[in-house]
Design goal:
The chain is an alpha+beta fold and about 750 residues long. It is built from eleven helices and 37 strands. The strands form five sheets. Strands 26, 27, 28, 29, 30, 31, 32, 33, 34, 35, 36 and 37 form a twelve-stranded mixed beta sheet that branches. Strands 15, 16, 17, 18, 19, 20, 21, 22, 23, 24 and 25 form an eleven-stranded mixed beta sheet that branches.
Length: about 750
């Protein structure tokens, strides 16, 4: 009831207004809306000409078309539709009360046009309009269409409008009207070209279907569409026009090959493993000048009146490599074209030694007039650049030799250009060839688009060195450099070879700090590694190895970076061979191996005892010996330079760990004393003390107190304060120290020399 009252109040208001208007202006019953519905922009004409049987006759087969997005069109009266929907009005139409409103649209053709009424088409994709009720009527030179709304109240219509997307809707009513125009002469065809097809429509609706129906009339008119009847008709080759002219032109363009900004007048120096991106350049300023000259061949013509057909333009750029260079990527980029040309495809040909890049004119199908083509060409930079990625020297290349890379570039443009006023047509075939620019000529080959590259010849040298490594022998982990350790005849004791690798770590760090990690750690490859390090321990008469001594040899501090590869006992001599646990190929791997071990590397032999013929109170000296050889090839990956290392080492006694019986010798040795059971002190727990701990024994000579013998227990012996060093029997210690020290020193020499040579 509320809606009905609202509707009645609305009708009462409209009725009162209509009556008042009728009394004042009896004939003024139409309210013409101020807003025009914008339809013209969605109309067009097109067609083709065909020559008639008679000379100088032709028929233009045209179509008037409209594709009208009704949501966008009706957006102009969206406010009125929404108010009508809120008030619940019914869209009464032009044909009377309670008949649905419709859009009426009339298309009018000029005299001479023949409408193909049987082929007229109309389709609908909207929800607002009732497709089944669509109709058209042909009357003379006009076609009138009626497009009724769906037969519902305004709330329903407005809901359909919103469903279609409102003012943003792309749902259309499409109209096609085929027609023909026949001309018997060129002049007649030109006259038809001047004529237009017009179209206009309106949408009439009434708010009430009762008495004030006539007074509630509102009409929304459309804008006027005016489209050419026969566009391009006079250009048809049917009216005795001049025959087409074929024009062929060839033009040389300056071109060059570069590496970066280097034009390559002389050979460009690169590193062996360096990636190279070659840049081909082409000066297209001459093409812009050529286009201006072509335009001037149409005397007095405006470029917009020169129609283009069958336009096609391409460039082909090729980069040819010698056998010693290879592509690592198949990629090309274009710069300077500013979207006028684009990369079509990039391929490798001729056993992948030639890269071919095709450039094509972007959007050629939309360039339909000469002014559009001219503007596109002028939008380019004066120089186009094609970058070929990426090239490297391959295994066949040799340092010190020069290799030439050549380029080739060609282009073409083909089109039919027709002056739409005079009918003059020219078939253009333009050819462009790249020629080496004067400023970029290569000294080696000035007549070609060419550039030469090389990398320095690799050098090879051998470094031979002989050096010492400090080592020590320990018994039960004590250096015993101040006293001779004493053991009972039946004791089994442990002899340890020790090597201090801390100096090696320091030297490796110095190498890394002195040279950037990317130059040393990763760019130097180590190969052809040969190493042999042997540490031996030889027992004197009076000492022997236990039967299972071989099972008690242990490497400590290596942390898996080094390992014992062989251990053997031959009589009184024990030999241990050690190797790197994993393969090393770069400085980085070597440094990781060095840093991975502890500062003190040790080889422990746990099965040494006195022989049956050992004499109590007698000293026995164990001899240690370490020898090593290390050979390796260090190759700088970027330059190919090689240094071969040939190092040899000899173990020497570590300062502070000397044998107390012979402290001046460089030989690695250790002396122990045999103590018979009967000579063992009364207190076996501490043989270094007298029987009565409260009363120390007095020497025979009161002025010279006696010195007790040092017992075999290490716990009772004061350890040396001197830092122990590597260099005793342990093969691994000597091997690791010698090898790592040699490599570190060798690389230091290698990189230093490389720096001095500027490579």
């Amino acid at each position: 009831m509320k809606n009905c009252k609202k509707r009645n109040r609305g009708f009462a208001f409209l009725t009162a207004m209509a009556v008042a208007l009728g009394m004042l202006l009896p004939k003024a019953v139409v309210v013409q809306a101020a807003d025009e519905l914008q339809v013209a922009q969605y109309t067009q004409t097109s067609g083709t000409a065909s020559c008639g049987a008679a000379q100088n006759t032709a028929t233009f087969n045209g179509s008037w078309k409209a594709s009208i997005p009704m949501g966008k069109v009706m957006q102009g009266i969206e406010t009125q539709m929404r108010l009508a929907a809120v008030n619940g009005f019914y869209p009464h139409g032009k044909d009377g009360a309670n008949t649905i409103a419709y859009v009426e649209y009339t298309v009018t053709f000029p005299a001479g046009a023949v409408i193909d009424s049987a082929a007229i088409q109309k389709t609908n994709a909207t929800s607002m309009f009732n497709t089944a009720a669509f109709s058209h009527n042909v009357s003379g030179q006009s076609v009138t269409f009626k497009f009724p709304l769906k037969d519902v109240n305004w709330p329903g219509i407005y809901e359909y409008y919103l469903k279609d997307g409102g003012g943003a809707s792309d749902k259309t009513i499409d109209i096609t009207i085929p027609y023909t125009v026949t001309a018997g002469s060129l002049d007649e065809a030109k006259e038809f070209e001047k004529q237009t097809v017009t179209a206009k429509g309106e949408f009439e609706t009434h708010a009430s279907g009762s008495f004030p129906w006539a007074f509630s009339k509102v009409v929304y008119g459309t804008d006027v569409s005016s489209q050419p009847l026969a566009p391009g008709f006079s250009a048809a080759n049917c009216f005795g026009q001049p025959s087409n002219e074929d024009v062929k032109q060839q033009l040389d363009l300056d071109a060059d090959l570069k590496l970066g900004d280097d034009t390559g007048n002389t050979a460009v120096t690169k590193q062996k493993t360096e990636e190279m991106d070659f840049v081909g350049t082409l000066d297209v300023k001459a093409i812009k000048e050529q286009m201006a000259k072509i335009e001037n061949t149409y005397a007095g013509a405006e470029a917009s009146n020169i129609k283009l057909e069958n336009l096609e333009s391409t460039f082909t750029a090729s980069l040819m490599l010698p056998y010693e260079l290879s592509f690592t990527k198949t990629e090309a980029t274009l710069s300077g074209a500013n979207g006028v040309f684009e990369v079509g495809q990039t391929t490798l040909e001729n056993a992948d030694r030639v890269a071919v890049v095709t450039l094509k004119l972007a959007g050629a199908e939309s360039i339909t007039s000469y002014d559009k083509l001219r503007d596109a060409i002028n939008r380019m930079d004066d120089e186009l650049k094609v970058t070929f990625r990426t090239v490297k020297f391959n295994e066949a290349a040799e340092g010190g030799k020069t290799y030439e890379v050549t380029g080739l570039v060609t282009g073409r443009m083909e089109a039919k250009a027709t002056h739409t006023v005079s009918g003059k047509a020219i078939n253009f075939n333009l050819q462009w060839d790249g020629k080496q620019s004067e400023g970029g000529k290569s000294v080696a080959n000035p007549g070609e688009i060419a550039i030469s590259v090389h990398y320095p010849a690799a050098t090879e040298q051998t470094i031979q060195k002989t050096g010492n490594l400090d080592g020590d022998l320990l018994v039960n982990e004590d250096t015993q450099h101040t006293k001779v350790p004493v053991f009972k005849k039946a004791d089994t004791f442990k002899v340890t070879g020790l090597l201090n690798v801390r100096p090696i770590k320091t030297q490796m760090k110095q190498v890394e700090d002195a040279y950037q990690a990317d130059q040393v750690a990763t760019n130097i490859a180590i190969s052809d590694i040969h190493h042999a390090f042997t540490a031996s321990m030889e027992l004197p008469e009076g000492l022997r190895f236990t039967e299972n001594a071989k099972d008690h040899i242990e490497l400590k501090g290596a942390n898996g970076k080094f390992k014992i590869s062989d251990a053997k006992i031959e009589g009184k001599k024990l030999s241990v061979t050690m190797v790197v646990a994993a393969e090393v190929n770069t400085f980085k791997e070597i440094k990781e191996a060095v840093d991975g071990v502890e500062d003190h590397l040790k080889v422990e032999v746990g099965g040494v005892t006195f022989a049956d013929d050992a004499v109590s109170g007698q000293n026995y000296t164990i001899k240690g010996d370490v020898t090593g050889v290390f050979q390796a090839k260090a190759t700088h990956k970027l330059t190919g330079n090689v240094i071969r290392f040939d190092y040899k080492w000899k173990g020497v006694q570590l300062d502070g760990g000397e044998d107390s019986t012979d402290p001046t010798t460089d030989a690695i040795q250790l002396t122990v004393k045999c103590l018979a059971e009967k000579d063992v002190p009364a207190d076996p727990k501490d043989p270094s003390k007298p029987a009565d701990p409260k009363k120390p024994s007095k020497p025979t000579d009161p002025k010279k107190p006696s010195k007790p013998e040092v017992p075999g227990k290490v716990a009772g012996v004061k350890k040396s304060t001197a830092a122990p060093k590597t260099g005793d029997s342990p093969k691994v210690l000597l091997y690791s120290g010698a090898m790592l020290l040699s490599i570190a020193g060798g690389i230091l020499v290698f990189t230093k020399r490389k720096e001095e040579q500027g490579i």
